[in-house]
Structure prediction request, 74 residues.
Amino acid sequence: MALGQKRNKLVVPESHKAMEQFKMEVAKEIGIQAPADGYWGNYASRDNGAVGGHMVRKMIEDYERRLSGKTPTQ
Prediction:
């Protein structure tokens, strides 16, 4: 990504590494090979959007489970 274009700030900056790992896991799950250098700018918007959309879906699902008191194995 070009310098100065990142507008989305993490609420918890210490989570950056975990979020990057999460992004790689989600990309692998949906069949998109993550870039080795970490630069997603060469990928189609559709692919990037699919990864982001699936990340959000999984985060919402996790939050709903926590609210209901259920764990992923229940």
Q: What stands out?
A: The chain is about 50% helix and 0% strand. The helical segments are 16-29, 45-68. The two ends are 40 Å apart (CA to CA).
